[in-house]
Specification:
The chain is of the alpha/beta class. About 45% of the residues lie in helices and about 15% in strands. It contains 20 helices and 15 strands. The chain has helices at about 30, 50-65, 85-95, 115-125, 165-180, 190-205, 220-235, 250-260, 275-280, 295-305, 335-340, 345-350, 365-380, 390-400, 410-425, 430-450, 455-460, 465-480, 485-495, 505-515, and strands at about 5-10, 40-45, 70-75, 105-110, 135-140, 150-155, 210-215, 240-245, 285-290, 310, 320, 325-330, 355, 385-390, 430. It has a six-stranded mixed beta sheet with strand order 3-2-1-4-5-6, with helices on both faces. Helix 4 (about 115-125) links the parallel strand 4 (about 105-110) and strand 5.
């Protein structure tokens, strides 16, 4: 059974009765510990140095009315307890340093004592989940109802919309959350920043599935883990982060890996297996390449998302697992639904919050901060600080942001590039020769991809294209990679025919053309 822990201020007015007559008076802190339906195991009582005697008296009196309650002194010295910024800052610092254990303890915030400013700050911090707690107010007894001196307790709500100074602190906290989602990378791409801002709001306010689309290496797994870390920091999630690439799951192994199996469910199943969905109970499950799941796995996953329970393979007993899902894909799931290879009901369930992560060649203004991030990551992983010379950095950045750099592997390829230069550099400094060698290496790689035509994008499906379609598609892809947006590419590709139309949607025409070959703008 969980222990109940309460936080509150020592009431310098309402708690301040002395002598034997104090037992006939309603004192909110004493009354909190006398609620028969709300036993308090530990009371964290905040006070300043001037109220030490009051705390000692309250501690002694609580020992008489509730011997099982542990009363803990928390010294908080405030210059002005009516100052919003000072009060919020003190309570925020207290929450940040407190070791919450939501698995073993339930938390209450007693808002009857303290200033009105303190009450508002308590509510604000609880609403933002810095305190994973409920708000409790104690009130004097109602004599006509026969209530004793302990009074009663209720839950209240407060309107905080007027307090602009507190809202400004919220803005700073939100900036910190956005920085966490971007790993501190000062991204400049407006569309990407706007998307991250919305993901931050969704991550904090919703437990619904999130669908992340985009090309390989665009950072879907990276972002999913950051969402988990954000929710973990807000005490909204306490389980594990479980990641699985669905493209690696096949046959009975897929069902077993995801949903577990009973002993003897199939040949070789000598022991029971919990499965990844149960491992993610109370946490976050990231299913990358969700479009690779077979129809049986899709059906089971839908049930698990909607009902929070499912049958392991070979078992007649349901198991429970309550997890949040983030799904990733490089494929066009809407097209797969139309083709009948992906369940429409599952797509509808995971598509409530859907975001497309652009590839690196669509975010060239973010190359510089991402290069700095990769240098820092290299130093962290290898214990060696690496830096560019000024000339080398300028040369590498000029190449990286040029149309010649297609970055087909996106941020993963950029990371590998920086790692190679860091490893081969002498004295912890990447020079011109290191950069020239790396540029040549990347160019050779991309030339091989170009020589292979569309095989790097379409795979074996390129064999089915006529030479006419192949040549045309290759040039269209080149234009797309040189363009800033799908609309920009559409204007270039339909530069003549669009003049004869009263209204033209070049972006839609281009998307439809790419869709004929199973491609999307973000997969190029």
């Amino acid at each position: 059974m969980k222990r109940t822990v309460a936080f509150g201020f020592a009431g310098t007015v309402l708690d301040y009765f002395k002598g034997p007559a104090r037992w006939d008076k309603w004192r909110p802190t004493i009354g909190l510990c006398q609620q028969s339906e709300l036993p308090i195991d530990r009371l964290e009582l905040l006070h300043d140095e001037r109220s030490q005697n009051l705390f000692d008296r309250l501690q002694a009196d609580i020992a008489k009315v509730s011997p099982s309650t542990e009363v803990v002194s928390v010294l908080v010295n405030l210059h002005d307890p009516w100052d919003f910024e000072e009060m919020y800052g003190a309570l925020h610092d207290y929450a940040s340093g407190y070791k919450f254990d939501t698995e073993q303890e339930d938390y209450l915030i007693h808002i009857t004592t303290g200033t009105h400013v303190a009450q508002i700050c308590w509510f604000l911090l609880a609403e933002a989940r810095y305190f994973p707690a409920r708000l409790v107010q104690t009130s004097p007894p109602v004599k006509r109802l026969g209530q004793g001196v302990e009074g009663r307790s209720t839950v209240i709500d407060l309107d905080l919309s007027r307090y602009d100074r507190i809202a400004s602190r919220f803005a700073r906290e939100r900036d910190a959350s956005l920085s966490l989602l971007k790993s501190g990378i000062a991204t400049l791409n407006p569309a990407f920043n706007k998307m991250i801002e919305q993901i931050e709001r969704v991550a904090i306010r919703s437990t619904a599935p999130i669908l992340l689309s985009g090309p390989t290496g665009a950072g879907k797994s990276f972002l999913a883990r950051r969402v988990y870390e954000l929710k973990k920091a807000r005490h909204q999630i306490k389980g594990r982060f479980v990641e699985v690439n669905c493209a690696t799951l096949r046959g009975d192994g897929a069902m077993s890996a995801l949903f577990g199996h009973a002993k003897g469910a199939f040949t070789g199943a000598q022991n029971e297996r919990a499965g990844l969905l149960r491992s993610a109970d109370g946490g976050l499950l990231f299913l990358d390449e969700i479009g690779e799941l077979g129809p049986d796995e899709q059906a089971m996953l839908l049930k698990a998302i909607e009902e929070k329970h499912f049958y392991p393979l070979g078992s007649d007993r349901e198991v429970d697992s309550d997890f949040q899902l983030i799904a990733g894909t490089v494929r066009d799931l809407r097209m797969m639904v139309a083709e009948g290879s992906f369940r429409e009901d599952l797509f509808a369930r995971i598509n409530l919050w859907s975001y497309v992560l652009p590839g690196l060649n669509k975010r060239r203004e973010d190359l510089a901060p991402n290069i700095d991030y990769e240098l820092e990551r290299y130093a962290s992983e290898n214990g060696q600080l690496i830096r560019f010379s000024k000339e080398a950095r300028n040369r590498y950045l000029a190449f990286a942001t040029s149309p010649e750099a297609i970055w087909q592997g996106n941020f993963r390829e950029l990371g590998a590039s920086v790692t190679r230069m860091g490893t081969l550099s002498d004295g912890g400094r990447i020079g011109i020769s290191d950069v020239d060698e790396e540029i040549a290496r990347l160019q050779a790689t991309w030339q091989i991809d170009s020589a292979n035509g569309l095989y790097g994008i379409l795979g074996d499906a390129a064999d089915d294209l006529d030479l006419f379609d192949r040549l045309q598609l290759e040039r269209v892809i080149d234009v797309c990679r040189e363009s800033d947006s799908v609309s920009d590419a559409g204007r270039k590709l339909f530069d003549k025919s669009r003049l004869g139309k009263s209204s033209s949607n070049d972006a839609d025409r281009l998307r439809k053309y790419l869709a004929r070959f199973g491609l999307t703008w973000n997969n190029l």
